[in-house]
Amino acid sequence: MADSELQPAPELAAKREGIFPGESADYAKAREALLAEEIAVRRHLTRLAEQRQALPPGPLIDENYRFRNENGEEVGLIDLFGGHDTLVTYFWMYGPDRERPCPMCTNFLGGANGNAADVKQRAAFKILGRSTVERQTAFAMERGWRDLDFVQTVGDDYAKDTGGLDEKGWEFPVFAVFTREGDEVCLFYAAEMPFEAADPGQDPRGPVDIAPLWNILDMTPEGRGVDWYPKLSY
Question: Is the CATH code 3.20.20.140 the one for domain 66-190?
Answer without folding.
Answer: no
